[in-house]
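Problem: given the chain below (467 residues), write out its structure.
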Amino acid sequence: MLRASASVLTLLALLAGASPSTAAQSRALVVTSDFVSGAFSWLDLDTRATHNDVTTVHSDATLRWYEGMVYVINRAGADNIQVLDPASGFHTAYQFSVGNGTNPQDIAMASPTRAYVSRYDSPSLLVCNPSTGAQLGTISLAAFADADGLPEMAHLAIVGHRLFVAVQRLNRNAGYSPTAYSLVVVIDTDVDTVLDVNPALPGVQGITLTYKDPVTTFSYDRNTGRLMIGCVGAFGATDGGIEAIDVNTLTAQGSVIGEGALGGDLGDFEVLSATHAYAIVSDASFNTQLVSWNPTTHLKLTTIASPGGFSLSDCALNDRGELYLANNGFSAPGLYVYRAGIDTLIAGPISTGLPPNQIAFDEARGEVAGVAPRAGALALSNPRPNPAQHDVRFTLSLAERATVHVEAFDLAGRRVSTLADEVRNAGVSSVAWDLADATGRRVDAGVYLVRARISAATVTRRVVVVR
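Solution.
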């Protein structure tokens, strides 16, 4: 279920009838499994010719695509990242451990030399160099764990310079049942510190979700600044759903659609447009279905596929206006291809060797690689004076009119003060901080981070406060 959400390009391609020559993606990438062994296969999007069982992977694996390479996350019992090179026919280029017994779930790339790995059976997030496998450090999320001591970190998304971590918080002593709440924890990748999204409460806070047990990948909508994720809640009860987070304000926006409207436990979802989306759900007897729904009206549209059994594992939209569906059941397994928007079957089942478990495409988008800021869009001068005793000033430069957020944080990631939160015109302007916190009290001596942000572009400066 690791793939980027459909962008505006996908919708335009659908409306314009994009041909393979105008599409950026060329291959579907698939990890396959019969739950005993696993493999990697791929499919040519032009011809739908498959190249099956190219490389052996773990029986419990998922994948990411980043800058021309496939990163296979081999989960429980393997605990490593396996890197496949298309230049060698997708054979293994190298492989590196993420820690014995840590059970990795996802990898998010901040750059070709810096990545983050969520580890389900560890209280700490791993920071590594994905090009070499070298471990660069860890970020503790132990403060967000429930009583069993583990936060159960799952999927990751990078938007700009922020890493969003889905934290399930399940009670392992009671069959991995949901606890009081689940979270999305936010990390500033400039300094690898956890951000406090609610300084009014004690400690460092994450974003509390409406639903429990986030299980799907994140889906980022650049147009609205919304990051969506699906939660299953308790299996067998329609108490989960898809909800949204505002990446600018770091606040929960509530439910987009609930499992009751979708018709079962949520397994995966994809958003095509403001009025058309997809979800894989399972009923009380664990029969999976592919359904369509409307993100604006929050209502289910129709059931597209209902093959019976717990057989539908993943769906993914490509930039050609096609929805790929993975069926890993015993009857008619393979990939099924639908014309997105009108939801007609155009191909399938397409054999992938072993049954398909998860699908991605060969062009990184949105949350896979982060949203790169346009060069020169934002600049923030060094602080003057620095060290500062009474106040400090910065020069802010914008390439175009934009909403600007300038905030001061302490080294624990707690937001101390908001210096600017407004629309400013293109050009040069000033920002000042009187070294007071949000209550008007003078901050203690120490090192603080002042960060300016517009959309996905972020610049951070360090200020030393003396007394």
